[in-house]
Amino acid sequence: MPGLRLAGKNTFITGAAGGIGLETSILFAQEGANVLLADISEAALEKAVNKVKEFLPSGSEQKIVGLKVDVSKEEDVKKAIESLDAQGGVDVVFNNAGIMHADDADAVDTPEKIWDLTHNINVKGVWFGSKHAVLSFRRNNKTTGSVINTASVVALVGSATPQLAYTASKGAVLALTRELAIVHAREGFRFNSLCPAPLNTPLLQDWLGDDQAKRHRREVHFPTGRFGEAIEQARGVLWLASDESGFYNGQELVIDGGMTKAYVTPE
Ligand code: NAD
């Protein structure tokens, strides 16, 4: 499949069973990659793998595999990434799994257990994925490798609708990604963050439900007047994963319809 943007690359995607992770899995597969889809939800994972396979050209020998992984457990992440050694080792790691808990609130009301749960998944999960990406790149003598970590616009701008544990966790993702990018630059390993704005995915939409006031409170800040779509994030991730972004390192790719650059938005 010469000409495809990820031809022959081995890719590992967490939170792959829904939202941004699933759209990215589809795009990676369409661009010729082998995709290891990792998610904590086995039922959703099975559906996701079948969906991704629908997009493969007939006769394709690409490997599209699902694996139950809890990113907050190092052993799960290690085993998953090591499983790709048999096919030459991982080339691209997308540490995307994340949660935003309904009980996450402000400094006063956020329960400590929600803080710890959020940070175990959103921060430790990204650390484990990054750590085992580096170990795998080295073990398989890679001279290039791309790691993409999902943060959020709330790591860049303050919000009066607080979710303090989530916001702090995404700030940590930006900081650790930036440092890893510098530490590993001479080895050819790139680390970048993705900062999505609020999206039409279950993570946010289930939480907003039918509450029109809550929805409007967010939509009004978009110059475009709408939430983003997961596929719009996935297209950015594809660029970060491919060699086209070879000189892009340690950065925050903000895909937000202009939200973080806006003061007063159009009526
Ligand atoms: P989503 O809820 O649609 O998908 C997240 C996936 O992660 C789910 O399939 C879920 O089962 C999985 N997951 C949850 N905990 C896990 C764990 N411990 N181990 C492995 N998998 C786990 O969410 P999404 O909107 O696609 O979000 C993906 C990423 O984007 C998250 O990191 C989220 O914080 C971030 N983000 C989302 C938005 C938004 O508005 N949706 C905005 C900014 C950033």
Automatic annotation (TrEMBL):
Q: Name one GO molecular function term.
A: oxidoreductase activity
Keyword Methyltransferase among record annotations: no
**Which Gene3D superfamilies does the entry link to?**
NAD(P)-binding Rossmann-like Domain
List the keywords (alphabetical): NADP, Oxidoreductase
- Name residues in a coiled coil: none
Instruction: Give the family per the record.
Output: Belongs to the short-chain dehydrogenases/reductases (SDR) family.
Q: What protein name applies here?
A: 3-oxoacyl-reductase
